[in-house]
Design a protein that fits this description.
Length: 73
């Protein structure tokens, strides 16, 4: 796992990610929105498509967690 991303999270954050995924995270990636008014629906639509292939969870910059189970619904 890329240690540069894991260092961004404390133990509590990692536990929340593990609960949201149902297993410990194996990798992280970051999506940067280009404008403050970019719609959340866009990145959630991408995450839902990804969730059909891999277990994923979304944690946004406001620390809102969208668990894998919610992305699959």
């Amino acid at each position: 796992m890329d240690s540069s991303y894991i260092e961004m999270f404390d133990d509590d954050d990692l536990k929340k990610l593990q609960n949201a995924l149902g297993a410990p995270p194996k990798t992280f990636f970051e999506v940067n929105r280009t404008k403050a008014d970019d719609p959340n629906e866009l990145y959630l639509a991408v995450a839902k498509k990804m969730a059909k292939m891999w277990p994923v969870a979304v944690r946004d910059t406001h620390e809102k967690m969208v668990p894998y189970s919610e992305l699959m619904s």
